[in-house]
Amino acid sequence: MTLSSLPTKQKDETKRRMSCSTLLNQSLQLGFAKKWTSVSLRPRTSTCCTCQERSTLEPKKKRDRESRGEKNRSVTEDKSLISRSRISQQDSLPPLVGALKASAEKNAASFHFPGHNRGRAAPSSLTQLIGFRPFIHDLPELPELDNLFSPEGPILEAQMQAAKLFGSSETWFLVGGTTCGIQAAIMATCSPGEHIVLPRNSHISAISAMVLSGAIPKYIMPGYDCKWDIAGGVTPSQVGKAIKELEMDGKKPAAVFITSPTYHGICSNLSEISQLCHAYGIPVIVDEAHGAHLGFHPQMPHSALKQGADVVVQSTHKVLCSLTQSSMLHMSGNIVDRDRICRCLQTLQSTSPSYLLLASLDAARAQLGENPGTVFNKALELAIEASTLIKKIPGISVLDLASFNEFPAIDPLRLTLGFWSLGLSGYEADDILDRDHGVISELVGTQSITFAINLGTCREHNQRLVSGLKKLPTSSSHSKTTEKRVESREHAPFNDICISLNPRDAFFANKRRVSIRESLGKVCGELICPYPPGIAVMIPGEIITERALNYLLDVRRKGAVVTGASDSHLSSIVICDV
């Protein structure tokens, strides 16, 4: 597709989008040009081999020549395989996938990066694992492959097709995951000193976005179920209350940020939240990392875009089928400045984006677009089948809306199970399922395990999951200590927060390390959270409470990986020296 072949209206829209590159270049000239040049021209450092490595790299000359010959033949054979597998009509491929295929098939004398040179120097340890094809298609920003920050060709076309499928006015491809999309969305809407309304159980990327933007949080405490030890979404009334509380102080939030669905699949009423915020002229940003599939089946909840959100960031690599780390940012309406989003994305994303990641986004969009109304039929059938069978197993609970009845829906492809009646924590049950049955879950909590059903789920794996769960009662000790611990936890670990410094000031404040006992009542200097799901229990700038400390020590004792703490044993904590 060329620009001249587009209808006049679409041509004007395309030209408007392409103007982003002009704005970006102007911003660079206004202060970053010298620094940008010095950074971009800085050579990469090389790593020296150890003596042992050198000895393995110095075989006899004959063997060395044979080895190089075999590698070159392998690359040549792989390229010939690609050529022989040509599709009769190149246009049938998604635009960026087709462009990458055509570029890789060129008989080029390559004097460009990356150093493996289209697989010719690919590390043998990795080619033995994944073959040569990923290296052959691991190409840089060649002219025919377009430029991520000023797209005019296949990237632009791929993004436009994604926007049409997902129902946005504009879509950007992300190679830094949903993390960089959330950071860009908050930076594009919030200036230093402005307030943002967000749930306290937001992903850590929202916290880092406040450090980058200088935004000040106005937290909403999400719904919480103590038996499950799971936080839910937020309600329209909570959002309205937060806006009015800021109004009473003479302030207006620059944005409202919502996570929907949550990691456990709990969906907030985004339609009412959007209507409420838009009445105040406030943009709604939605972290829809776990919901790129929503709206593509009648039995699924509506997507955030369908419910009126202004900026939506999705992890296309989660339930959909792009490569890990690839995501999309969608914009709708005209409340948010799209040029500011462009500038923020260029600031945050790599200047050497992976075309394998970008092409995988294009391919995932095409896969979904082939049968958008029925593509999830099998996955939904398997999810319902598994849920029905598991509900019949004594001692195992299945999360449903009864625990979070103030919310409209739970993602049917997210299956969360509780084991307290068996005297098992989520970590203990997960260990048994993994060790004895080869069942690997998506998310482990103190009292539950979450399993993600997707397009690749098969019936045999479903049956193995159900079979393993049926054997859990005989594997457990039937101790009731877990159940007692659940009963004693009446509130979320972050329910009683007190903010002393905003995240940005706390991030740059002087710090010192103290013992965990000394830290109580001090200002936290670290972002500490069990991961997954990446929800912070302590955020820089908050007063350290006994409840938060006890929670962290408890989940670590049960087997959680606690990230962000410089002392992984949690015997000490970094505090702000204020």
Automatic annotation (TrEMBL):
Signal peptide: none annotated. This is Arginine decarboxylase. Residues 501-556 form the Orn/Lys/Arg decarboxylase C-terminal domain. It comes from the Eukaryota. Residues 94-398 form the Orn/Lys/Arg decarboxylases family 1 pyridoxal-P attachment site domain. Gene3D superfamilies: Orn/Lys/Arg decarboxylase, C-terminal domain, Type I PLP-dependent aspartate aminotransferase-like (Major domain). Residues 53-87 are annotated as: Disordered. The keyword Lyase applies. Residues 55-81 have a biased composition (Basic and acidic residues). The keyword Lyase applies. Keywords: Decarboxylase, Lyase, Pyridoxal phosphate. Its cofactor is pyridoxal 5'-phosphate. One of its GO terms (molecular function) is carboxy-lyase activity. Belongs to the Orn/Lys/Arg decarboxylase class-I family. It comes from Populus deltoides (Eastern poplar). InterPro entries: Orn/Lys/Arg_deCO2ase_major_dom, Orn_Lys_Arg_decarboxylase-I, Prn/Lys/Arg_de-COase_C, Prn/Lys/Arg_de-COase_C_sf, PyrdxlP-dep_Trfase, PyrdxlP-dep_Trfase_major.
